[in-house]
Amino acid sequence: MTGSGLPAPRDDIAALSGYFSPQADVPVRLNTNESPVPPPEEFVREWCDALRDVPLHRYPDRGAGALRAALADRLGVRAEQVFCGNGSNEVLQALLLAYGGAGRRAAIFEPTYALHSHIAMITGTEVVAGGRRADFSIDPDGAAAFVEAQRPSLIFLCSPNNPTGTVDPPGLVARLRQAAPGALVVVDEAYGEFADRSAIVDVADDIPLVVVRTYSKVWSLAALRLGFCAAPAPVVENLDKVVLPYNLSAATQVAGLLALRHSAEMEQRVAMLRGERDRVVGALRDLGSMTVYDSGANFILVRPDVDAHSLWERLLARGVLIRDFTRRPGLGGTLRITVGTPDENDALLAALSAAIEEVAA
Ligand SMILES: *Cc1c(COP(=O)(O)O)cnc(C)c1O
Fold first, then answer.
1. Measured distance CA(214)–CA(224) in Å, rounded
2. Is any ligand 1 atom within 6 A of the Cβ of residue 87?
3. Residue 185: Cβ-neighbour burial (10 angstroms; 0-12, 13-18, 19+)
4. Per-residue pLDDT tens for 169-182?
5. 33 CA distance to ligand 1 middle (Å)
């Protein structure tokens, strides 16, 4: 019993704190890595039209067959190698339910996306954390030794890594598979389309590799909650066993399918954001007074020479919200900037140079 007289949850759940990311209503929001632009109007119209024909009194297609087939086509895999969830977070949860759980371990490399360890703990999976180099890259030798010693059931990589932007070197997945032959290697590619390299080309039925992607960032559809993975067909069979039946609503399935017909616009947005990312990285380096880490994503991690939390506060006062990681272990003194529209990025750069002077004064 807890103090309130209510029953206590599992001890490990009681010890958890929930996901937290401050939200504020300011003119320039560059804090959660969303797309700065909404999806094409034409897509929204097509979706609303299609919804009128959905038989709402019937359950949706449980296997999301049409959506999986269309995604498989786009990714160059078979439909049996695709699994969909309500956001990639649900895909990660299904992977942990099927391959993690009590008595099993998941390996991560900190600092990385907080939800990997958070969802692991919720599913009762023990988390073992390896580290990264000072520039946040993963040392292949160190990582191989780590997983060889820890014998995890799952190894989570994140490339480009949130929040550092780091893209893993080619060959890292193969190296880790060799070192931990019993493990499923999961590569979270939520930002994969912004980078020059992807592990998706290596997905095959006889390779223990899963690549997870999402509509939340590149498809400008964070509100939709749709994610997916490419995996060996036998892995997908196990994910289908643990996910709740009819997890994907008809509305989600239709949207996911129709969005794929607008991939030209999506690719334009990705190109615009990659261009803006490179421009902002250049401008930040010209500004000086901070370390700017290389990024393959739609966000940039910086470590200012001045007090980073004060800088974050000054930016907020100027109507620019970015992400404050100054108190996150392994990220001390860093801030993460999501790449926005050209105007938003200009506003950020102007506010930043003024705020740096204020904090330094
Ligand atoms: C944003 C993000 C996701 C997205 O989660 P969804 O549930 O698909 O919205 C997944 N992984 C990483 C690393 C992210 O940054």
1. 10
2. yes
3. buried
4. 999 999 999 999 99
5. 9
